[in-house]
Amino acid sequence: MKHIMQAPGNCSIEDALQMVCRAEELGWIQLRRNEKKLLNGINIDKDNRLRFHILGDKAKRKMRVQTREEKIFVLANDCLTGDPFIHDLSLSQDMNAVCANGYRIAKCMKEYFLYRKNYRGALSSALLTKSLYQKVWDDSPYLLKQLPGIGMVTAKVCSLY
């Protein structure tokens, strides 16, 4: 709640996602040594799949994931692409936990921003809430994946049309 209360007035979706990644509710997620190579590859993102990246000095993409918050940020971004790259069981469980807890945190952010009459922050957190609940960005070509019985293959085929 402290992070939410210190949010900037023009809170973007990326800022809201960063706040979710710093939440104490996700403090049990640890960055393991054997995960770093996979997470680094996802953050480098040669195929431009991710919406946001971990940035280092001079607004350049960081080459290495070094903290728990950065791991959570990469996992959330990968999940919300609609076609996650991660298929490792422990990382998939972490990703599902990030989406489930992140949904509740973003919903709390939305309510707080509405109370404070910060409508830009409320809109950003509402879009993030919706995306985390559906596990896909709101402008993803794989939106059909949300429907029961529609898998990734059908969603990919339908996104071509």
Automatic annotation (TrEMBL):
A GO term, aspect molecular function = 3'-5' DNA helicase activity
Question: What Gene3D superfamilies does the record tag this protein with?
Answer: Sec63 N-terminal domain-like domain (1.10.3380.10)
Q: Which domain of life is it from?
A: Eukaryota
Residue span(s) of domain SEC63: 7-147
Q: Which Pfam families match?
A: Sec63
- GO annotation, biological process: meiotic cell cycle
InterPro entries on file: Meiotic_Crossover_Helicase, Sec63-dom
Q: Can you say what this protein is called?
A: ATP-dependent DNA helicase MER3-like protein
Per the UniProt record, the source organism is Capsicum baccatum (Peruvian pepper)
